[in-house]
Amino acid sequence: MTLGAGKALLDRAALTLCFQLLCFVGSLHAFKTQLFGRHGGFFHSPEIPVSYETFYLDQKIDHFGFVEDGTFKQRYLVADKQWRSPGGPILFYTGNEGDITWFCNNTGFMWDVAEELGAMLVFAEHRYYGESMPFGADSFSDSKHLNYLTAEQALADFAILIQNVKLSRAGAQHSPVIAIGGSYGGMLAAWFRMKYPNVVIGALASSAPIWQFSGMVPCGDFYKVVTQDFAKSGSNCDTNIRASWGAINNLSATASGLEWLSEEFSLCAPLKTDKDMLDFKSWLQETWVNLAMVDYPYKAEFLQPLPRWPIQVACKYLALDSSVSDEQLLHGVSQAAKVYYNYTGSSACLNTSETATGSLGVLGWDYQACTEMVMPMCTDGVRDMFEPGEWNFQAYSDECHAMFDVRPRADWMGVLFGGKEIASHSNIIFSNGGLDPWSSGGVTHNVSESLVSIMIPDGAHHLDLRYANDLDPPSVREARKLELSYFWKWIRQAAKKHQRVAKSG
Amino acid sequence: MTLGAGKALLDRAALTLCFQLLCFVGSLHAFKTQLFGRHGGFFHSPEIPVSYETFYLDQKIDHFGFVEDGTFKQRYLVADKQWRSPGGPILFYTGNEGDITWFCNNTGFMWDVAEELGAMLVFAEHRYYGESMPFGADSFSDSKHLNYLTAEQALADFAILIQNVKLSRAGAQHSPVIAIGGSYGGMLAAWFRMKYPNVVIGALASSAPIWQFSGMVPCGDFYKVVTQDFAKSGSNCDTNIRASWGAINNLSATASGLEWLSEEFSLCAPLKTDKDMLDFKSWLQETWVNLAMVDYPYKAEFLQPLPRWPIQVACKYLALDSSVSDEQLLHGVSQAAKVYYNYTGSSACLNTSETATGSLGVLGWDYQACTEMVMPMCTDGVRDMFEPGEWNFQAYSDECHAMFDVRPRADWMGVLFGGKEIASHSNIIFSNGGLDPWSSGGVTHNVSESLVSIMIPDGAHHLDLRYANDLDPPSVREARKLELSYFWKWIRQAAKKHQRVAKSG
């Protein structure tokens, strides 16, 4: 493979990897809506039935300009059965790139702690996702209609929504509000506390890569974490994946090799062209990344139905020594990939375009990645197990321009949200999983007494936000305890402040 | 006069009063540009020659959306003769609604302290004012072109400008930046620290009415302060102004009375219609407000050439007892008004449309007042010396709609900038003059250890930002000393932090 081709692959990978945050959603959306229906429902957790009410708030399409004066209906979900009124706290999920019912049903931590805190739960849908479409069916029709899809607009929606909830519900006026989110939702939770500290008393930003932007962390760190996960999950596991790309390239040089590969991987569409090969390798790369994100300690159905510690299961097929043939190596690779795609044995064939579905959610994140959310990624094949590929902003920008007629602004998020200079803010917990590739862009050290980092060495992507599980490692149990103790601390702070104000007023 | 007419008057007054912040600029703009020219120049302060360089930075027209991808040239002025490089601090003037050279030449405090601090001075022009026109000559052509005239866009300009100054000047990379502004510029300075604490280590917000918005302070407080200024500046002074409206109404009932009024006030255009009378009274009301804002302890030429303590001078003409006739009372009023309009004796006649000139600056603030900057005002004729008039948001909104095809959002500034809930921010000095009507919406008590209020009982509108003067009252001398000591404190904090980061990095 030429360097040019390698670069092109990475360019594409870099672009699509930015969307991993939402691949959660893209893939699961269809699945979940079947389970839960649209207006409330019950999650199939063994312990806790989830029930909520669905509401809609009229929001300005454009908070930052006055010419576009239209409104849209923002969906939000409220569960107040455990709420101690008046004044009980509100846990506010800062919805990310997908249908809010999915986040509602998957953020078990909020449900688990609601009773102890006497908390109302509110889950706010992010504009341009789920049902919260600023221009209805036209929202994605062109870049003009997409113009109001930014994190700043979403934060303004949240601020106005909270104001509305507090004013419209008896007993909620003085309720302290805590922002909670995971992944991009975690970034929003942290940014929300930074920009609207008057609205939320603190934030739990779980697996929130707020430093994954240009110039803040080395572009190769993300894939290094993926590689480490495989390295420690089985003998020779990362080494054999690193070797697999050469084997794939060798086989793809001949028609019979292509045929063999297509059959070995049970591909729905046989590999034929160079582009097919790029797509195939990109898909495989994403598979390893996804496995790293959902390397949970118990059977779960987050991106796909998977066994506990799925990387260990996959790596069993890759415990081969270096003397094996290309075909033997790639047989192991295909078996490992099928742990991810076909654990239940129900897939007749594998589709290499599967990790990026065509749902609105995906398109929305594509647009965000092409405007504000520019997260450089690169690989070198040495510190990581992937083919080398540089970060190429120009190619990325050109791709965005072709796709949406916009150009990304690589530096804007750093200016707007402070980059690594966040020490003057307060009351934010940054929790990160040691197994989660996104920890590469996370805040993994205490910035100040009240900007704290919680590391969960055995945790994948925002494990702490999931329901408690008997198989949870001690590190995540401790993390949740600590998070809860910060919540209590912030709530006590707010109560004291409220008393002072009430006395002096 | 009927109540309806009174209300209409106040509605207009409320609208125009919101623009007082910029009447500074509107009136003085033409005057100043003659004095100083456009690219640098020398201020006629007795002590300190002002010299600076003029630069232009390409800024995005829309920081918060990606469809409008155009740029414009933002003007900024730099004076670095006193700057201690590397690392000396930067004092950054957050330009408000007018030509930045005017603020540069009038913010003597910055020039006075530059040497002691070893500071670089940067004065940033606010978009849509002076030369910083996003769409050139078309910037005010319609509401579509005005859409990017908001405080948020201006703050983003400032953040990007500082990033640029720090990266492009040798020795500036680690320079701590302090935001300084007066009036609306002071609001911007405070908001800048709140929203971009990574960019500025602190802010001096002088005479910044950040609480003048809906629901934060009583709408009548502003005029109460004006009234108090007159009450304490001469015998019966406020009482006679309160009585003057009735006298005016009496005289305006007859043609001869109108003629008498027109002659007595040396009006350029004689009073004829009811509308003329409303305009006349509104103009007179604004005159008293303006006098209150510029009630400085020395001869000055801020809004108009004026004697020292101009209200005391005006009140000499109003020290009449209650037995005087309407004509005698109004003769006193006209003499008092002429202290403001004709102190130098050079005005042949007075123009009742004079306090709101037609310059771009005025139109810009009109638009801001019609969108974000909604500052309710009212009078009751009891606690203040004006004709009673309620705050009427609907009428205000309708007027805005007619003028710009936009509707103001009364609550937005409160949500965006936290309203009275600002305690979680840090390092902001709110200085207020006890004589300044805008102190009604200012932060006049310490909010926390690092959100401090400095009261200057003898100060009018941002007196502390003016050049030191031999006639300055002790209170403003003390205020400036205290401000400087906070600057040093913040600079030391930043230096410590920088050392810590450098050591750990």
UniProtKB/TrEMBL annotation, chains A, B:
Keyword Transmembrane (UniProt): no
EC number: 3.4.16.2
InterPro entries (UniProt xref): AB_hydrolase_fold, Peptidase_S28, Ser_carbopepase_S28_SKS
Domain of life where this protein originates: Eukaryota
Compartment(s) of residence: Lysosome
A GO biological-process term: negative regulation of systemic arterial blood pressure
GO CC terms of this entry: lysosome
Chief localization: other
Any one GO molecular-function label of the UniProt entry: dipeptidyl-peptidase activity
Keywords: Carboxypeptidase, Disulfide bond, Glycoprotein, Hydrolase, Lysosome, Protease, Signal, Zymogen
Record field: catalytic activity: Cleavage of a -Pro-|-Xaa bond to release a C-terminal amino acid
Glycoprotein recorded as keyword: yes
Pfam families: Peptidase_S28
Protein family per UniProt: Belongs to the peptidase S28 family.
Role summary: Cleaves C-terminal amino acids linked to proline in peptides such as angiotensin II, III and des-Arg9-bradykinin. This cleavage occurs at acidic pH, but enzymatic activity is retained with some substrates at neutral pH.
Subunit architecture: Homodimer.
The protein, known as: Lysosomal Pro-X carboxypeptidase
Annotated source species: Hippocampus comes (Tiger tail seahorse)
